[in-house]
């Protein structure tokens, strides 16, 4: 089958299209022919070496498609079922084998593209807003990169929970996307100091939580945006890794800092199915809207990484097998 291989860590150019053996189906697994592949920053971090992985490496964790075969002992799924997943072993390819209990049924009315776009980013928005900092009715929260794949979904889930959402974006085009997602206030951080704007918009009180996927360029300033006992939720680093800092900054208002990972929130099959089930059902009923952005053939995975890492994309980036 065709797959993207990484022989050494580095820039997007280290990803090449290659012929590799099809995966061998093991007991308890399902073999899925991919219809759509999700591209995420964790793929960039692994390709670059920021998150070490064994080499050679097929990137990707997320996708959706159709079950082609089931291994011994699998009774929950059958050939022809449509499924999606967020932690398969290498999805930049045509076929993937994964444990059956990590594959989630896709409801009718949800396409492969929507399902692939929803798993990692949709479940991330879900756990951030419902569990990491459980947003309450009447809270005010700050969401960075609010026009991105996670950002637009997190804005919607936060509004669903009854929050007032302050959103940072870099361009007027992205501002429109954040507004459409439901952001109450837009801060164009390329023109205004976002911390000063948060102070103005909250009458100096600050926000209950900052959701920061940007990292180095926003992290420290974000603490100045928090209300007493507020939560700094750092869940990404698209602008670079966070530099060492003095934890004394937390004393300003007895602040909390957390660096969560989705996989600690979907580690067991029940949690995975519950969380994915919520997200996919919201999409099916039309109450959670996806922004499907750049979609490229598998062979152009390097270009997808270049644009994602360059923050040139709006919404979800997909690859087509």
Helix-strand blueprint:
Layout: E1 2-6, E2 15-19, E3 29-39, H1 41-48, E4 62-70, E5 82-85, E6 95-99, E7 104-105, H2 112-132, E8 140-143, H3 149-160, E9 164-169, H4 172-181, E10 185-188, H5 194-201, E11 207-212, H6 219-222, E12 226-234, E13 256-258, H7 269-285, E14 292-297, H8 301-309, E15 316-320
Parallel strand pairs: 8-9, 8-11, 9-10, 11-12, 12-13, 14-15
Antiparallel strand pairs: 1-2, 3-4, 3-6, 3-15, 4-5, 5-7
Helix pairs in contact: 2-3, 2-7
Structure in words:
The structure is a single chain. The chain has 321 residues and is an alpha/beta fold. It has two domains: 2-119 and 266-320, Quinone Oxidoreductase, Chain A, domain 1 (Alpha-Beta Complex); 136-259, Rossmann fold. Helix content is 28%, strand content 26%. The protein is built from eight helices and 15 strands. The strands form three sheets. Strands 3, 4, 5, 6, 7, 14 and 15 form a seven-stranded mixed sheet that branches. A six-stranded parallel sheet has the order 10-9-8-11-12-13, with helices on both faces. α2 packs across α3 (149-160). The chain is globular and about 60 Å long. It starts with a strand and ends with a strand.
CATH class of the largest domain: Alpha Beta
Main sheet: strands, sense, barrel: 7 strands, mixed
And the CATH topology of the largest domain?
Quinone Oxidoreductase, Chain A, domain 1
- CATH-scheme architecture of the largest domain: Alpha-Beta Complex
Order of helices and strands: EEEHEEEEHEHEHEHEHEEHEHE
- Give the N-terminus to C-terminus distance in angstroms: 10 Å
By DSSP, the count of extended strands is 15
CATH superfamily of the largest domain: Medium-chain alcohol dehydrogenases, catalytic domain
Number of helices: 8
Which percent range fits the helix content?
25-40%
Which overall shape is indicated by the principal axes computed on the Cα atoms? globular
Q: Which segments are poorly predicted (pLDDT under 50) over 5 or more consecutive residues? A: none
Beta-strand residue percentage: 25-35%
Mean residue pLDDT: 95
| Strand-pairing-aware structural class | alpha/beta
For the record, the count of structural domains works out to 2
C-alpha Rg, in Å?
Answer: 20 Å
């Amino acid at each position: 089958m065709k797959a993207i291989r990484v022989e050494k860590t580095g820039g997007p150019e280290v990803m090449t299209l290659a012929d590799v053996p099809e995966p061998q189906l093991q007991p308890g697994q399902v073999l899925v022919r991919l219809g759509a592949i999700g591209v995420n920053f964790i793929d960039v971090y692994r390709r670059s070496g920021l998150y070490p992985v064994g080499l050679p490496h097929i990137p990707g964790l997320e996708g959706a498609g159709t079950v082609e075969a089931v291994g011994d002992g699998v009774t929950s799924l059958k050939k022809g079922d449509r499924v999606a997943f967020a932690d398969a072993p290498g999805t930049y390819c045509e076929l993937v084998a994964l444990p059956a209990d990590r594959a989630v049924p896709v409801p009718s009315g949800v396409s492969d593209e929507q399902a692939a776009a929803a798993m990692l980013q949709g479940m991330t928005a879900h756990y951030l807003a419902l569990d990491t900092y459980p947003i309450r009715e009447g809270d005010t929260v700050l969401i960075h990169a609010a026009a991105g794949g996670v950002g637009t979904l997190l804005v919607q889930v936060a509004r669903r929970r009854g929050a007032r959402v302050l959103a940072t974006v870099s361009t007027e085009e992205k501002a429109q996307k954040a507004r459409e997602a439901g952001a109450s206030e837009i801060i164009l951080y390329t023109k205004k100091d976002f911390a000063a704007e948060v102070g103005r918009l909250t009458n100096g009180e600050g926000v209950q939580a900052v959701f920061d996927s940007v990292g180095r360029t926003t992290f420290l300033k974000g603490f100045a945006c928090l209300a007493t006992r507020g939560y700094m939720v750092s869940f990404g680093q698209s602008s670079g890794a966070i530099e060492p800092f003095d934890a004394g900054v937390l004393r300003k208002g007895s602040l909390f800092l957390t660096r969560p990972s989705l996989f600690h929130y979907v580690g067991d099959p029940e949690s995975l199915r519950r969380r994915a089930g919520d997200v996919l059902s919201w999409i099916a009923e039309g109450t959670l809207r996806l922004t499907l952005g750049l979609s490229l053939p598998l062979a152009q995975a390097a270009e997808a990484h270049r644009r994602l890492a360059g923050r040139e994309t709006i919404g979800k980036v997909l690859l087509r097998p």
